[in-house]
Amino acid sequence: MKENREVLEKLKKLEPVLWENNDYIDAAAGIDSTRIDIKKVYEAEDRLIRFAPLIKKLFPETVDGIIESPLVEIQSMKKSLESYYNKSIEGKMFLKCDSELKIAGSVKARGGIYEVLKHAEDIALESGKFSLQDDYSVLMSESFKELFSTYKIAVGSTGNLGLSIGIMSSALGFNVTVHMSRDAKRWKKDLLRSKGVTVIEYEEDYSKAVEQGRKQCTGDPKAYFIDDENSIDLFLGYSIAALRLKTQLWELGLTIDEEHKLNLYLPCGVGGAPGGITFGAKLIFGNNVKCYFVEPTHAPCMLLGLLTGRYNKVHVRDYNIDNITEADGLAVGSPSKLVSMVAEELMDGEYTIQDEEMFKLLALLRDSEGRKVEVSAAASLLGPTLLQADENTIHISWATGGLLLPEQEYLNAYKTGKQYLQQR
Ligand SMILES: Cc1ncc(COP(=O)(O)O)c(C=O)c1O
């Protein structure tokens, strides 16, 4: 298709694009064709509720052991965007603050923590010393810690997935290794090591870190690799966000229907988090939600895979794109196959964004709302300026990370953003 060819040419030139997915099919049909059993989304939510007594004790900073983030209206940011980009934004604008999610401070905690907990539950049940009816806080006892310490967990990560899996696995007593790509920030590695996690660093990108982690677990029956490129459990963990979002919207007196549409803007790396959230959102809100992925111009792997039909076989370097971006969570060269299939039918579109723009958005958000996000997360804030909407539209920019970002790193990013803003 001509439009797709034009978008591809722009991607190769590192120009920002806005792409609408013409292969999008009706939400219900799209969900059916993924063959993912929707019952599993609800089962996953039930599992997290069973774990709440344990989480409450291990991480008292959570609210009753439920790991959830606020949804807040950001009127001042909306005004700042309108003024800076000289565009009017129809509808209301909200921030989904996964940047403030307790324990690991990013959207990746939704999937990562869920999969570690599910694995722990499986092992505990298999031991014969535990049943689904027990109080789950028993899983932090010395005897279960000892049991878990005989098992290994590994993951490949650009940083945030590693943080969530490392923190939760080590809290339960697992022997955990995180394979980190070159993009991962030093502070994330230091934090993990301080919690007793083994961190292995690579000079290559994320795909290599995942490949190595997977290899090292192969053939070891006590080793479990959490596979960000293929894991259905990670995917289900992310999807639960949509169930909770429905309740949060309802609490704010907002209903999503034919007259009141919802637009989600979701930063994308390998695709698990935005893919899972999209799946959950289409399940809950049907065709009344539109889900847009966001990737850096230097790492647009999901869009490249969809445009070329090569899905996970694509690597940005095949198109001379360097995969170098300050948005470390989004620095991924090849997308997840599982999510490419889901995205092809369920995602409504995507925009790509330059690093410079993300820094500006981070600074505008701090100045207007006093909210802290990391560079990757700021990518979601441009969406409402790019897409057509009406006065009833609810825009939600998904702030995917930030809580654990050290203050000095954050202030440096803010200063960079301010400089870019002043250069105009
Ligand atoms: C802050 C942040 N936002 C978004 C993402 C994208 O998630 P995914 O790689 O599942 O697409 C990541 C991934 O690590 C991240 O760290």
UniProtKB/TrEMBL annotation:
Keywords, sorted A to Z: Lyase, Pyridoxal phosphate
Residues with N6-(pyridoxal phosphate)lysine modification: 108
Catalysed reaction, written as an equation: D-serine = pyruvate + NH4(+)
Signal peptide: none
EC number(s) on file: 4.3.1.18
Lineage: superkingdom: Bacteria
Domain Tryptophan synthase beta chain-like PALP: 68-384
Keyword Lyase listed: yes
NCBIfam families: D_Ser_am_lyase, PRK02991.1
Protein name: Probable D-serine dehydratase
Organism ancestry: Bacteria, Bacillati, Bacillota, Clostridia, Eubacteriales
